[in-house]
Amino acid sequence: MAIGIHPLTASIGAEITGVDLADISTDTAEELRKAWLDHKVLVLRDQHISQEQHIAFGRLFGDLEVHPFTENDDGHPEIVVLEAGGDTGRTFVAAGWHSDVTWRAEPSMGSILRGVIVPPYGGDTCFANACAAYQRLSDEWKERVDDLVAVHDYMRVFSDRVAPAEREAMRETYPAQHHPVIRTHPETGERGIYTNIGFTSHILDVEPEESKEILRHLERQIMSPSVQCRVRWQPDTFVMWDNRSAQHAATNDFLPMHRRMERVTVVGDRPF
């Protein structure tokens, strides 16, 4: 039986029905991959699976990375734990628009996030179609940014998580990366905005003020509600998004209530 695909908006996102993540056939995995490319964000609800099954599901789409700067599950290093509020003492929420780990030489292809502890209200995640945002640029702006290259640096977000004695070695392992400002999706051929407020420090070969102007303008395109969808979490809701063509931002409107999410991240390739 074909899976059910129910678009969230005309621009991005679809809720998927008729799928059990504990029992995925090859045909179903291919249907999901196609829907993922078409809609960029997929929502699957009421998936009561184990962490091991979460990892196995992620591996259907590629190798999984281990994040060097986040809190990872003790028994499953592939699982990134994103937790704030409650008794955790943490208030950090990834509220700025971004794609995951663009500071890597080969940033992630996609992320698969699970709601584990979900507050009764607040804590939604918003997603933006970076390709639609690019298409909304004027021809003059497209010509201005099409061939530019930007610098992405993990230090902008994670510098305080690296001990001073380890920073030199970590910088050698994860040097700042140069990625195109407008990325071409390797499977669909779509072009999309690939700068973000979190990890992009500046644009190469332009004056600092012009760099800031360009980054602000591109961020405003991503922030347009016309290219977005918004997901309200429930326990055991899974959301998978394509980091090559979508950006996301969490909301911090649930604090001080407790929110815990768990993510696996699929290894990607070098942007072009």
Tell me the layout of helices and strands.
Layout: E1 4-7, E2 14-17, H1 26-39, E3 41-44, H2 51-59, E4 80-84, E5 110-117, E6 125-129, H3 130-135, H4 139-145, E7 149-152, H5 155-158, H6 167-173, E8 177-180, E9 182-184, E10 191-193, E11 200-203, H7 208-222, E12 228-231, E13 238-242, E14 246-250, E15 259-266
Helix content: 10-25%
Mean pLDDT: 95
- Taking the alpha carbons of the first and last residues, their distance comes to 37 Å
Cα shape: globular
- Which percent range describes the beta-strand content? 25-35%
- What is the second-level CATH architecture? 4-Layer Sandwich
- Structural class based on helices, strands and sheet pairing: alpha+beta
Query: pLDDT under 50 segments (min length 5)?
Result: none
CATH-defined topology: Double-stranded beta-helix
Order of helices and strands: EEHEHEEEHHEHHEEEEHEEEE
Q: Look at the structure and give the CATH class.
A: Alpha Beta
Radius of gyration: 18 Å
Strand order of the largest sheet: 1-2-3-13-5-15-4
Instruction: Tell me the number of helical segments per DSSP (H or I, 4 or more residues long).
Output: 7
**What composes the largest sheet?**
7 strands, mixed
Query: How many domain regions?
Result: 1
CATH homology superfamily name:
Clavaminate synthase-like
Strand tally is 15
